[in-house]
Amino acid sequence: MYKYDQYDQAIVDARVEDFREQVQRRISGALTEDQFKPLRLMNGLYLQLHAYMLRVAIPYGTLDSRQMRMLAHIARKYDRDYGHFTTRQNIQYNWIKLEEAPDILADLASVEMHAIQTSGNCIRNISADQFAGAAADEIEDPRPWAELLRQWSTFHPEFSYLPRKFKIAVIGSDNDRAAMKLHDIGLQVVRGADGGVAFDVYVGGGMGRTPMIAPRIGVAIPANDLLSYMEACLRVYNRYGRRDNIYKARIKILVHEIGADEYKRQVDEEFVHVKALGIDPPQAEFDRIAAYFAPPAYETGLSDEIDRNDPDFALWVDQNVSAHKQPGYAVVTISLKPIGGIPGDATSTQIDVMADLAEKYAFDELRVTHAQNIVLPHVKKADLYTIWQQLEANDLAVPNLDLVSDIIACPGLDYCSLANARSIPIAQKIAERFADIDRQRNIGELKLKISGCINACGHHHAGHIGILGVDRKGEENYQLLFGGSGAEDASLAKIVGPGFSEDGIVDAVETAIETYLGIREEGERFLDTYRRVGIDPFKAAIYG
Amino acid sequence: MTHTLRYRDDATHEEPAVTLEAFLGQSNATAVRLEPSDDARALIPHLGQLALIEVSFPKYRDGRGYSSARVLREAGYEGELRAAGDVLVDQIAFMRRCGFDSFIADAELDLAAVERALNRYPEVYQDAADARPAVWKLRHG
Lengths: 544, 141
Prior knowledge:
heterodimer; A: alpha+beta; Sulfite Reductase Hemoprotein, domain 1; Alpha-Beta Plaits; 4 domains; 5-stranded antiparallel β-sheet; globular; B: alpha/beta; Rossmann fold; 6-stranded mixed β-sheet; 6 strands
């Protein structure tokens, strides 16, 4: 894992003092709420329906046990004893007092964490594949590049007042676990012509009210051109992205309106100019960062056998444990989706338990996934049973990874000032309807995603089944969508038909799934069947 | 408190700035004013004759002027580069890094707060149009 040096620490410490002064100016009345708003937003502090919400950055979703324990401490001391892990691999706290926010930042800085650029029209926290450095299918660990981008984008003087927020994801495998093509920029590590690290650069993806899958703009851009290339991509956007309409201000609209070829032409032209400025760090800096992400000291000669005598354990292994590149090791995903729970929420006790497990069994590392779960990236197969028992004792061993109850949901109208409808109760009702784990496993992989408004924080466009809450004449109404995917086979979900009430949407989801079970062919997921047969059989079953 | 800041040793340029359109149309003007939508690159062939380029910020949220400033500095412009309009204390440090060396703010600026903002961060992570070295340069000599 990356460790701050004196420069990194000095910058984060300075930010704490910066924000402390800004909060004091606000509390004293020297700043109006209007003047304060852009300042707090640059630092992840939102004013929500009931209280301030603070979003803490977890760069590329990677953290150690000391940092995880600090997240538990913040939940206990400053919030209502829980935190909410987000689709951007961050954590947010929903009940924050403005006057305590600087102290929280100081606590975070003491463990090399911050809330810098977790909101605002700037380059947001960089996300990455949660299995980075561990996945059996990986070409190269993307995190050193994500860290390089974190540093480059932090307080970038030219790109802090972009037309709109800007999200970057980096992956190092052909299997996309980070919804890379649904980001403003998605980077995939590839091998360049010379065998060195290079990047395919996808620009202009996104969800929100105009969902788009990013076209590939840069092909095998060499690593030592990466920052110049990014700077060129951002400068074209900063100069020409629309500023007349907030809903058309994301880079996806620019790329769509001028066309991918023209955008690419402009980037290429800008790149030639920027490259000559010498802003790309030398190999020594790449090597310095990469050294922090060297593989841990794996034991060798370990057995790959897992004792499956306990059926509940075996079930969890089958569902929540993934292949690791190192023999004898595995990747564990801890589900934060207990039946009837709030997707992504964890109590301070649970956060501490996960920290303890990481320290003891996973080389002191944890990851946050964009699907709002937690990963222990490197565990010995021989330790799986002990880990499972401790998870089980803390309501963290739900064997539902990628199943219908592993739902992504935005905070919705329960918290969010933008929402039109509640998301959490819908997630809870669907999970309860499909509580039987055998039924869920029979259904197979099914990514269900719920947003409480058109901004799509719950990724409904990328759901195999998506649900969008809208306001219809003062009533919450839920639209149903099928056929989205945030993975390497990225696609956008389509609306099935007229919307439903809160209970009606749960029934409609069940009808759709029963329809799929009736017509699926061997090995097909819901998504595969939908893609094969189209919407009609589902529509007929749901609307009669 | 002040509306104006200047970080140059030479005398203030007194000639009024003309619009980009007027400048390209005539012109022997030595001062020009860029609106956010103007293409700063249009000035590149004429930088030698310019003593002042004023970049307008009608709203602080509109960040196009930051790119305009860098484009001009990267092209070698050494004259006065002024940010004018909705210029707030918390943006001035970024503006300085992008190459602005004078400011005319709509609202009064607290000089002490500006000084604190300019000196707040001991290091910077990226090269820009100022002389501050990116942290990686300090790390690797």
